Amino acid sequence: MPRKTSTPTSELAREILSYFLRNPQAADSLEGVTRWRLLEERVHRQLEDTDLALGWLVSHGFLVKISSQWTEAVYRLNEGNRGDAEEFIIENEKGKRKSR
């Protein structure tokens, strides 16, 4: 049984393994894995993270999700909550400056 590690190498190993688990027929060189596979893995993870963030922004009224049966959903600013959105950004920036 592999031991659990928490080094940068173990995170990279998990990314590589996750790609190969999702794509069991894949085979590539070191350079190929580095250039294409890891980029794809990061994009996959970013899609999931972005979906969660968009859902949060919609649920808090900052964005509006527009769905259509002919295209995938698109998002836009909820103009009715523009002031709240600007306040959210300002407060978040203040919090970042304090933590430095």
Task: List descriptors.
single chain, 100 residues, two-stranded antiparallel sheet, 63% helix, flat
Tell me the layout of helices and strands:
Elements: H1 8-22, H2 30-59, E1 63-66, E2 74-77, H3 82-99
Antiparallel strand pairs: 1-2
Helix pairs in contact: 1-2
Describe the structure.
By secondary structure, the chain is mainly alpha-helical. The chain has three helices and two strands. It has one domain. The protein has helices spanning 8-22, 30-59, 82-99; strands spanning 63-66, 74-77. A two-stranded antiparallel sheet has the order 1-2. A hairpin with a 7-residue loop joins β1 and β2 (74-77). α1 (8-22) crosses α2 (30-59). The longest helix is centred in the middle third of the chain and has 30 residues, at 30-59. The mean pLDDT is 84.
Domain unit count: 1
Low-confidence stretches: none
Assign a percent range to the helix content.
Answer: 55-70%
Radius of gyration, in angstroms, nearest whole number: 19 Å
Percent of residues in beta strands: 5-15%
Instruction: Please state the structural category.
Output: mainly alpha
Number of strands: 2
Shape: flat
Brief overview:
With 100 residues, this protein is mostly helical. It contains three helices and two strands.
